[in-house]
């Protein structure tokens, strides 16, 4: 049996942020990670024959000075600045994303673009006053016509459900601040800038719009460099990380308040750990089911849904095929949702200048037809869809591999908020030394700097011995704080949070 002050479930960005900061302060910490090879979770960097690629693409930027400083502390020498470029592929044409209004309307043709403008103007005059679904929220911003062209198909590929079933919270969190007027004014401003000039882009209120950011920082060999370094430094500082080890059960002694955690390795070895605090970045549904004494919120946990993810990395016998970091595929005739161009993320991701490496991303549910397909069938599908889109012939696709990622995205359906609140309130009241952090740990569709911030504040709470911060208030309004690297001063602004000090009992 192994004892530590803090036990961390999951070695993704939130778990490793916690372990690095805890061990830096001399607090004994143990981490378990189900993956036998990679740390970093969905932010890891996979390696196939020295072709490197991430699971989804991870830009590095944040308005939080603490997060930016921590990135530089963990990985001080290996960041490069990369230009951001992405487009939408629809009906055989490419559209800049964020949308450039005149280009988009020009590509659509006079009749269709006129209908889009009229649809937008109608929604400006008669908006849905309280948008509850993704459909309603985006239609308010762009009009029904542009929603159906540029958002509906892709979004339903991502989530496997109707846009009328997806909560408006997801749209508000991911594309807040962007509307057609912002896109048009941004296009006009950029057209008048000197060639090569880039900056962070703001809405009318001066707030940086994350969707319009034009450059970002990136580790030269992918985001896995960050988390490999965090794991290495955790161990150097005395921490323990057990790879290939999954959570089996969890219980707390009612008298001593000590946690007992049981886990199992990939080889079937049973392990037992004890700790004063548990930090969990595991999916909430799995965590709730791991309790020996099942909490009342099991029913709410069972209602939480997750979207899974497949990356098919295809090596193409041609140099880079397009300049974008990624392309959104809004074309309904193919299943692929997004295509990454890994050399555009970093030249060091692709070892041969004469070859390209593309990542075709498929969104699915674990166990469905796509998920259950063989690697060979998935690579064949990717090759055929590259040919349909016109990016590469099947003959030029000379190699490939498949990576499956379970629970990549927590689903924001109609009842998710009430279910999360039921779980959160019961566990917080019953287990004050259990701390939920990160994307799946909080069932929040956040990026890695938000996940890191939840752990950073949790570590402060543990070190202080009291709840100074309510981490659920981080970006509580669903606004995601980030800034372009070219706006260096903006990138170093702190996210100001008012500490919530919990009164001690007299």
What's the quick description here?
By secondary structure, this protein is of the alpha/beta class. The chain is built from 18 helices and 18 strands.
Strand segment count:
18
The CATH level-2 architecture of the largest domain is identified as 3-Layer(bba) Sandwich
Q: Give the biggest beta sheet.
A: 7 strands, mixed
Shape by Cα distribution: globular
**Integer count of domains:** 3
How many helical stretches?
18
Task: Supply the CATH class of the largest domain.
Answer: Alpha Beta
Approximately how much helix is present in the residues?
25-40%
Distance between the termini: 36 Å
Q: What's the rounded overall pLDDT mean? A: 87
User: What is the CATH homologous superfamily assignment of the largest domain?
Assistant: FAD/NAD(P)-binding domain
Q: What does this molecule look like?
A:
The protein is an alpha/beta fold and 506 residues long. The protein has 18 helices and 18 strands. Strands 1, 2, 9, 10, 11, 12 and 18 form a 7-stranded mixed sheet that branches. A 7-stranded mixed sheet has the order 7-6-14-15-16-13-17, with helices on both faces. The chain has a two-stranded antiparallel ribbon with strand order 3-4. Strand 10 and strand 11 (259-265) form a beta hairpin. 36% of the residues lie in helices and 23% in strands. The longest helix is centred in the C-terminal third of the chain and has 17 residues, at 448-464. It has 3 domains: 2-43 and 61-73 and 221-304 and 413-478, FAD/NAD(P)-binding domain, CATH 3.50.50; 86-212, no CATH class; 306-410, Protoporphyrinogen oxidase, mitochondrial, domain 2 (Polyamine Oxidase, Chain A, domain 2).
